[in-house]
Design goal:
With 242 residues, the chain is an alpha/beta fold. The chain contains eight helices and ten strands. The chain has a single domain (32-56, 80-239), classed as Rossmann fold. The structure holds adenosine-5'-triphosphate.
């Protein structure tokens, strides 16, 4: 469903060139649930921006459902983003003056859906994430976990094939984090591809596949990553596929 081939992205900073993504190749399949883990500065945000069609690489290919995203113009990118990808953020990014239902409806307004259809879809998405009975609550009247559920419902509203979650549990306590991760697992079982970006190994381990990013290069786990003795921030070489 997603195929990334030899993707490169550099930033110029004065005289220095930062190679944020170095020849990254990755396949993401129907039904996948993968996490991307890496320390600060490793290239996670850069990679997420590419995966979310928020930025374009310097070179390489990005095929989404067989279409080469890397060559699309801004307007096409915006369309792909709107239809194919649902975004979930660490700090929820809800509008505080709108109710839960109105927040979830918002992306559907941009799609030109009528009010009744919007309301029904938004309500169905809130039901799906376990928030029936909370339609009229404002974000400030909801717990952090409930706010993240609203944000997940909003991401689901447009029925995207991919959910791209950037540190979705970063602002939550561990119990609530587990509930949100459980919800993401259930959504994956229902057929959504989930890409979870995190710096937390315990969170990353919940996914079916774990991709480690380090100095702009990606490594996939070879199955023996998770022995405790081998887990440390600097042990990336140990984790490379043999
Ligand atoms: N706009 C930019 N201009 C110059 N350098 C940049 C820019 N954006 C990112 N970089 C550099 O590219 C590298 C990768 O950054 P990136 O933000 O992707 O890392 P990250 O893994 O998301 O880090 P964090 O977890 O701290 O957010 C870093 O060395 C960073 O300093």
């Amino acid at each position: 469903m997603i195929e990334i081939k030899n993707m490169k992205k550099s930033y110029e900073l004065g005289d220095e060139i930062v190679h944020a993504l170095q020849d990254v190749s990755l396949q993401i399949y129907e039904g996948d649930f993968l996490s991307i883990i890496g320390p600060s500065g490793s290239g996670k945000s850069t990679f997420m921006n590419m995966l979310g069609c928020l930025d374009i690489p310097d070179s390489g290919e990005y095929l989404l459902d067989g279409k080469n995203v890397a060559t699309m113009k801004d307007i096409e990118l915006a369309m792909v983003r709107n239809v194919k990808i649902g975004f979930i953020f660490q700090h929820f990014n809800l509008l505080n003056k709108l109710t839960a239902l109105e927040n979830v409806e918002l992306p559907l307004v941009y799609r030109g859906l009528g009010a009744k259809e919007r309301r029904e879809k938004a309500a169905a998405c809130l039901d799906l994430v376990g928030l029936n009975g909370r339609y009229q609550h404002l974000p400030t009247q909801l717990s952090g976990g409930q706010q993240q559920r609203v944000a997940i419902a909003r991401a689901l509203a447009g029925n995207p094939s991919v959910l791209l979650a950037d540190e979705p549990t970063g602002a939550l306590d561990s119990k609530t984090s587990n509930e949100v991760l459980q919800l993401l697992k259930e959504l994956n079982e229902k057929g959504h591809v989930i890409i979870l970006i995190t710096h937390d190994l315990e969170v990353a381990k919940q996914a079916k596949r774990v991709i480690r990013i380090h100095d702009g290069k990606v490594f996939e786990n070879g199955g023996d990553w998770f022995e405790p003795a081998r887990i440390d921030q600097d042990g990336v070489k140990e984790y490379q596929r043999q």
